[in-house]
């Protein structure tokens, strides 16, 4: 109903229907009240429209902020891709460092001393994952291990490149992947191109993969990526140590039932030794990789 017509319609009818369906005539003295009700109705009607406009403006403001935030994320993602483009480095799966912590939490809840052998094993597994992650991080000279992480779509499933082709390093600037099934050459070419940011070509079941030499600036960026990755894995080792030490400290203080202080101190010393050994192995692997990256060609 048009708000401007509301008073005139009331004046014309001068009657309304009550709760029991009885028609009641309005007296002329009630006309000022009609005008007041009509004005109130128009205000409420316009207020509802204004509220809708405000909600729409708020939505538009959020759309703009979301769009800007998405653009910033896209720019950040592009810069990160450029940093690791020539390195063919993959992001570190940080969640793998901490997926075994549930067992340690159970030991804490039961007030049991941690097993030093299990603690040492966890640390060694973290070091091994770090070493494995370095294989696809290119140094000054490329290696066949650069292709270990490549996954190929073959026969309706994803499989490793080594299972569908033989990769050979022909020269420091060229590698070839000879497909066991020539029909997979196109899939291999696409996988290498997309996952390693290279420009291979396929012909007669053989994929030729040019390996451009990387500049000093790019190698310095790769070295920075290596340092950050190594520190993240060190944090994983330290977290395993912290979980174990939180329990052994209670034992040394005599707060664990049926656990002697001497046993708790012995376990504490073994955990410390395992931590130092794991950190040393990780640092040695990181240093060797750094030297390989920054080696003079």
TrEMBL record:
GO molecular function: ribosomal large subunit binding
Positions of region (Disordered): 61-104
GO biological process assignments: translation
SUPFAM superfamilies: Ribosome recycling factor, RRF
Pfam family, one: RRF
Ranges of biased composition (kind: Basic and acidic residues): 61-72
The keyword Protein biosynthesis is assigned to this record: yes
GO cellular component: mitochondrion
Keywords: Protein biosynthesis
Biased composition (Acidic residues): 92-104
Domain Ribosome recycling factor residue range list: 132-294
Record has Protein biosynthesis as a keyword: yes
PANTHER family found in the cross-reference section: MITOCHONDRIAL RIBOSOME RECYCLING FACTOR PSEUDO 1, RIBOSOME RECYCLING FACTOR
Family affiliation: Belongs to the RRF family.
Protein name: Ribosome recycling factor domain-containing protein
Protein species of origin: Fistulifera solaris
């Amino acid at each position: 109903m048009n708000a401007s017509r509301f008073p005139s319609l009331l004046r014309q009818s001068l009657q309304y229907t009550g709760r029991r369906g009885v028609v009641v005539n309005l007296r002329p003295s009630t006309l000022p009240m009609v005008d007041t009700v009509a004005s109130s109705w128009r205000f409420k009607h316009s207020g509802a429209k204004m509220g809708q406009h405000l909600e729409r403006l708020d939505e538009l403001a959020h759309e703009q902020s979301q769009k800007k935030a998405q653009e910033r994320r896209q720019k950040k993602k592009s810069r990160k891709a450029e940093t690791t483009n020539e390195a063919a480095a993959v992001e570190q799966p940080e969640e793998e460092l901490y997926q075994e912590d549930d067992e340690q939490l159970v030991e804490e809840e039961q007030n049991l001393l941690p097993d030093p052998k299990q603690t040492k094993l966890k640390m060694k597994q973290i070091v091994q994952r770090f070493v494995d992650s370095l294989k696809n991080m290119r140094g000054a000279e490329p290696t066949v291990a650069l292709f270990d992480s490549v996954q190929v779509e073959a026969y309706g499933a994803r499989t490793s490149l080594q299972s569908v082709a033989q990769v050979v390093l022909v020269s420091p600037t060229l590698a070839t992947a000879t497909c066991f099934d020539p029909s997979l050459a196109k899939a291999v070419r696409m996988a290498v191109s997309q996952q390693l940011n290279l420009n291979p070509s396929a012909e007669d079941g053989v994929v030729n993969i040019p390996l451009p030499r990387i500049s000093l600036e790019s190698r310095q960026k790769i070295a920075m990526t290596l340092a950050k990755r190594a520190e993240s894995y060190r944090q994983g080792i330290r977290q395993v140590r912290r979980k174990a030490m939180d329990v052994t400290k209670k034992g040394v203080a005599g707060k664990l039932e049926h656990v002697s202080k001497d046993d708790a101190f012995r376990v504490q010393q073994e955990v410390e030794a395992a931590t130092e050994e794991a950190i040393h192995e990780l640092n040695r692997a990181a240093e060797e990789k750094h030297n390989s990256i920054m080696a003079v060609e």
